Amino acid sequence: MANIILKKKDDAQRRLGEVRGYARKIWLAGLGAYTRAGQEGADYLKELVKAGESVEKRGKKRLDAELDAANSEIDSVKSELTSVRGKVEVQLDKIEKAFDTRVASALNRIGIPSKHDVEALSAKLDELTALLERVARKQ
């Protein structure tokens, strides 16, 4: 019986040793997983940063290209607007002159003197006034 007790005791110690060995392996596997996750996590983070920088660089290039295209289009529209504005001003000047001519013609037909007629008459009156003043001084 002592033999059976010793055998059971040895069996229990062997199993306890196996459990301790297995527990140690689990502990070491956990440490290894933690270490690998830390290392791979850092490497993975570096890869993500590099990928993000690449996307940002491409995005900036695309944005710059879009802005350049938009600015070019704005410059083109400004140039065209300036050209159209000049043409409109020329046409408005022509319309204004035509209107002035027609109004002056209509006023002349009904007997109302033009600005030129009034200025000419005013000049003649000035001459006559000056002549009368000379004659009056001589007398």
Automatic annotation (TrEMBL):
<dbReference type="InterPro" id="IPR008769">
    <property type="entry name" value="PhaF_PhaI"/>
</dbReference>
<dbReference type="Pfam" id="PF05597">
    <property type="entry name" value="Phasin"/>
</dbReference>
<feature type="coiled-coil region">
    <location>
        <begin position="60"/>
        <end position="87"/>
    </location>
</feature>
<protein>
    <submittedName>
        <fullName>Poly(3-hydroxyalkanoate) granule-associated protein PhaI</fullName>
    </submittedName>
</protein>
<keyword id="KW-0175">Coiled coil</keyword>
